[in-house]
Write a structure and sequence with these properties.
GO cellular component, one term: nucleus
Distance between the termini: 58 Å
Helix content: 40-55%
Oligomer: single chain
CATH class of the largest domain: Alpha Beta
CATH architecture of the largest domain: 2-Layer Sandwich
Radius of gyration: 35 Å
Strand order of the largest sheet: 8-7-6-9-10
Protein name: BED-type domain-containing protein
CATH topology of the largest domain: Nucleotidyltransferase, domain 5
Structural class: alpha+beta
Largest sheet: 5 strands, mixed
Number of domains: 5
Organism: Aphis craccivora
GO molecular function: zinc ion binding
Subcellular location: Nucleus
Strand content: 5-15%
């Protein structure tokens, strides 16, 4: 049933449930009031015919609570709007999307369909206030944590020399970019890098986190910086564990044992197959696998390259045999060089073992005790395979550079290992270091080895420092890749400050913390 008024058609059910009737009008309550003139004389026929008088009087004089239009309207409170603004911004940060997309008509239409009455933030607001808020929340997560610090140099899209400082929270497997330094015209000497390391430790302290360890690559300036940092008079830094990146050293070990001629041999054949239209098509038609070229700047690509060549060798050999007239003479010669193929296969056996170790070591959550276990296993493998003395010496040299007394002590205190694969010389090295720098811990370590009573607080602090030290600085290398993705040629007007914040947030939003996995 409907009640008709000038220019307005109102359902009778609405009049039954909404408003107060008084005199010649109906007042609708809520956020909007509507006064509807009844004009009884002119529309008496409608009111008489459509609304029974006794029903209308009974309903209008009812004492039941009134309904409001608020129940029929979707509202966005100030708090809800803030939450929506923040979530929209996080989507843009996490996907590395251009902020201008927030003002695209189709995006605005989508938001209106999902939440009528809500206006999304502008790109300026996302790039400014919201970014600062999210970045501040991110830094607050470090409060009360003991972290491992890493720093390394890099050049951005404008070829500015930048030193990035990151920390790894081993408890959540998250790497945070906490600072960036524009070095301008300063050379990366060991003393300059040491000043940056000290200032970075102090900055982390201002964030509420404690730097327990410092890992860098093994360049000469970094190595000297680490050595001098341990002898620094500043008590806030001389107790920090410093060591080199094990992933970097494993990559160097792979180059140390390189078989002469294999790399150039494999590279020549793969380039010929990949970039020759005829042979590339033949390889695909016969079910060949993807070919990988070795790259010096990417770890483990040499192993992947040799493996891809050997997997495709039978197909490649058949293609060359069936199409001898179309194949270059030097490629035919290489195809028929079975001795070189066998040498490549022998080299791959060694490389695969190193590559497997490197893949694990460069993870963000491998501590120095776990890295020590990997190095010991690798060394034992090469010894058991009875490789020649030259290779064993190269493995031993890299082992000595990678494993410090900190590593050995962590390996002893880790309940998974308890130092079981250490020889007496290595055990003595760890205990001598402990006795020299942490004499109060010696009795506790002896108690631990004897499976005695619980330890004192001091040993737990020492263990925390050792068990939050990650084995490599590969996390900062991945941050450089993220930096290149965010601060790209298309977004080259981003300043270093804003780009570093976006990198930090992007990295955090695309990492699943251990606590939520």
């Amino acid at each position: 049933m409907l009640v008709l008024y000038p220019d307005i058609l109102i359902p009778y059910a609405v009049i039954k449930n909404l408003g107060n009737y008084s005199g010649d009008h109906i007042s609708l309550t809520g956020s909007t009031s509507a006064i509807i003139s009844t004009q009884a004389e002119e529309y008496s026929d409608y009111s008489t015919d459509l609304i029974p008088n006794n029903t209308l009087k009974r309903k209008l004089t009812s004492s039941k609570p009134q309904l409001h239009l608020d129940k029929f309207v979707v509202k966005t409170s100030v708090e809800d709007a803030k939450k929506l603004d923040n979530q929209i911004a996080r989507i843009f940060y996490g996907t590395n999307s251009p902020f201008i997309a927030v003002q695209h008509p189709e995006f605005c239409k989508l938001i209106h369909m999902l939440q009528p009455g809500y206006t999304p933030p502008t790109r300026q607001y996302i790039a400014g206030t919201l970014l600062n808020n999210v970045y501040t929340d991110l830094k607050n997560k470090l409060n009360g944590k003991m972290v491992c610090l890493a720093l390394d140099g890099w050049s951005n899209v404008h070829h500015d020399s930048i030193v990035c400082v990151c920390v790894t929270d081993i408890s959540d497997d998250v790497v945070y970019l906490v600072d960036k330094i524009d070095t301008q015209d300063n050379s990366h000497t060991w003393d300059y890098l040491q000043s940056l390391a000290i200032s970075s430790v102090q900055y982390c302290k201002s964030l509420g986190c404690i730097v327990g360890s410092l890992v860098t690559d093994n360049a000469a300036n970094m190595h000297k910086m680490r050595s001098n940092l341990a002898m620094n008079d500043d008590t806030s830094v001389n107790n920090i564990i410093t060591y080199g990146c094990s992933a970097y050293l494993l990559n160097l070990l792979a180059k140390d044992i390189e078989v002469k001629g294999v790399k150039s041999y494999v590279k020549k054949i793969i380039k010929y197959l990949k970039y020759s239209h005829f042979f590339s098509a033949k390889l695909k038609m016969t079910g060949g696998k993807k070919l990988i070229l070795p790259q010096d700047v990417r770890w483990n690509t040499m192993a992947d390259s040799i493996e891809s060549y050997l997997e495709n060798w039978s197909i490649f050999h058949k293609i060359c045999t069936d199409n001898r007239s179309a194949v270059q003479n030097d490629i035919l010669t290489s195809d028929e060089d079975i001795a070189m193929k066998n040498r490549a296969h022998e080299y791959l056996i060694k490389l695969k073992k190193i590559a497997g170790a490197l893949d694990r070591v460069q993870s963000d959550n491998y501590t120095i005790s776990e890295v020590t276990s990997i190095w010991l296993t690798l060394q034992k493998y090469f010894e058991n395979q009875a490789f020649d003395a030259d290779i064993l010496q190269k493995v031993s040299n890299r082992f000595q550079l990678a494993i410090t007394p900190y590593h050995l002590l962590g390996y002893i205190l880790d309940p998974r290992f308890e130092g079981k694969y250490l020889n007496q010389e290595q055990m003595d090295e760890a205990l001598n270091y402990t006795n020299a720098y942490h004499p109060t811990v010696m009795a506790e370590i002896i108690t631990y080895q004897a499976e005695g009573v619980p330890f004192s607080k001091y040993l737990f602090e020492e263990q925390t420092q050792l068990f939050t030290a990650v084995g490599s600085s590969a996390g900062i290398e991945r941050l450089f890749s993220t930096f290149g993705l965010v601060h790209s040629k298309l977004r080259n007007r981003l300043g270093v400050e804003k780009a570093s914040k976006l990198v930090s947030v992007f990295k955090s939003l695309n990492t699943i913390p251990k606590s939520t996995s």
